[in-house]
Description:
By secondary structure, this protein is mostly beta strands. It has 3 helices and 12 strands; from the N terminus they run E-H-H-E-E-E-E-E-E-E-E-E-H-E-E. It has helices spanning 19-26, 29-35, 200-206; strands at residues 15-16, 38-40, 56-66, 99-109, 114-116, 121-125, 148-152, 158-164, 175-181, 191-197, 240-242, 245-255. Helix 1 (19-26) crosses helix 2 (29-35). The longest helix has 8 residues, at 19-26. It is globular, with a radius of gyration of 17 Å. It binds fe (iii) ion (FE). Fe (iii) ion (FE) is lined by residues 10, 172, 175, 177.
Amino acid sequence: MHHDILDNDDLPVGRVHSRREVLALFGGVAGAALVAGSMVARAAPGSGTAIPAGLVAQASSLCIATPEETEGPYFVEEMLNRSDIRTDPSDGTTRPGVPLLLTFNIASVSATACTPLTGATVDVWHCDALGMYSDARMERTLGKKFLRGTQVTDANGMVQFTTIYPGWYPGRAVHIHFKVRTTPGATTGSQLTSQLYFDDTLTDAVFTQPPYASKGQRDTRNNQDGIYADGGDQLLLTLTGDTGGYAAVFNVGLKSA
Ligand code: FE
């Protein structure tokens, strides 16, 4: 009943550095520039999202990755260039759930500087409120595109996605998959394939609501997830907002070659 090919996309590509390694990498000063401060999450014009306007999202996560060479894609290469990934273009339906505005700031990190990375491709994909992925044969959702999307970073290294709080499926903590690539489709360049996680107490509260509640109690929390165990603390989102909608900012530093 679990998705077939998508099992593979749980494999991380690129190494996420530990907090100690990050500090060593930055020598303290440059790192502060990436870690410090908050930024205003702005909703895409006309997106119709229910996320409160002007909501300030705290950028609390720092993920420095040492990228590896691009290898064959494990996920579905949709190249669906869109910011609001809640809909399914094939039938016009919208996946129900608590809105989530997810912002990525992608930077290129060298020994001396941390520079916004413009033109990087960011893919996001995750299961719906009931644990279902689109475009998965085993789940009979082939051809569906809900909760998948691609954006290219702007001059500030930023992309935004409007989506929903993910549900769960057996054996995994609640997560969102993401992939950052400098040169999609090429055999050179940098990429990071990883996952974002959620605070379990917050998830408990979200999952008391429909449609999540109808699935019952999830079987895996962060501390029971073997993939989370490999650097998940560095990939934990800090959400602002309330049960009407959340926002989160996640910073990714790709170590330049
Ligand atoms: Fe997954």
